[in-house]
Design goal:
The protein is mainly alpha-helical and about 325 residues long. Helices cover about 30% and strands about 5% of the residues. The strands form two sheets. A three-stranded mixed β-sheet has the order 1-5-4. The chain has a two-stranded antiparallel ribbon with strand order 2-3. The radius of gyration is 27 Å and the shape is elongated.
Amino acid sequence: MAPRDAASPSDQHELLKQILSIVQSIQEGYQHLSAAVESIQRQVNVISEVKQVHDIAGKDYPSQTRIAPTQPSSTGDQQIVSETQPGPNAQASSLELGSAGPSEARNDGESLYGRKLGANSTSRIILTTYPGQSGIDPLSMKWGHPDALVRGPVVVSRSQSTIRRRNAIGAHGGSYSVYHALAVASKHLDVDHKPDFTNSEPAVNIGPFPQWKKIVSIDPLGHLSPWLFSKTMRDENIHIRPSIAITKAHMKLPELEQSVRDGRIIPDKKICLNDSGELAVTKFAVEPVWYLPGVAERFGIDEGALRRSLFENTGGSFPELITRGDIKVFLPRK
């Protein structure tokens, strides 16, 4: 009987399974490697873009200085609320701040919302602030300045460490800020939660361009804020968040798929990726950030009239539009 030269079908099947397993393992390794390389590339892009922003101003990472508030506060938010009278430089306002009554706080330290107050918390609600109040020290904002650090970050958070340094009115997230409020109220998110921006760098480099100084309805540096102003965030415990997100994605359109089938479009593997007409795209999510003097000028109206109209037509949601004439940046709801 002649010896068998070929492997049996079962042996061949087992061998093919092993080869397939090895190929799949290689593919998974490649995907992990590709993701790691892309993450590193995003970080390199951010470093490069931050450097470009500084180079445009002709300076390389100038030192940031901070002017201390005229009278530091050591009693938390209570001190701000207790000073309801405007300072010497405050604008006249018809708003009246109600004093805290039994419905706002009880003697047992439990707040209106049924939560025990922490050591650094207060039951008093801050309705508004004034530019002349003790401890109020907004970060410098020089809109349109070519040097990003001189221009300054947009700071709108009302967290305990940041509320005295705010230089913008409104809230991040626009209409979605109510869901942030819901998460905090239901104790699913800490009131002083700080987001982790690891691996959230912009997917591509954008700018900077000289024309950016003309923009008055978005923050052209909004996609770089956590990285441009990381020193301020770290050293002064200031909450700074991006107002622009830049990501990459794949998009499918039935019209393009049909065009590929008909031969009108030939996939180049860079923009049109495959025979199904899938596209490689870059997505931008942008929050409005208004520089109020610039917006008023574009519409040919007085800034005071714009502030009053915004205040009244948002249900009185932002009293600092009236009481804080020194703050020129506003994050409206979409």
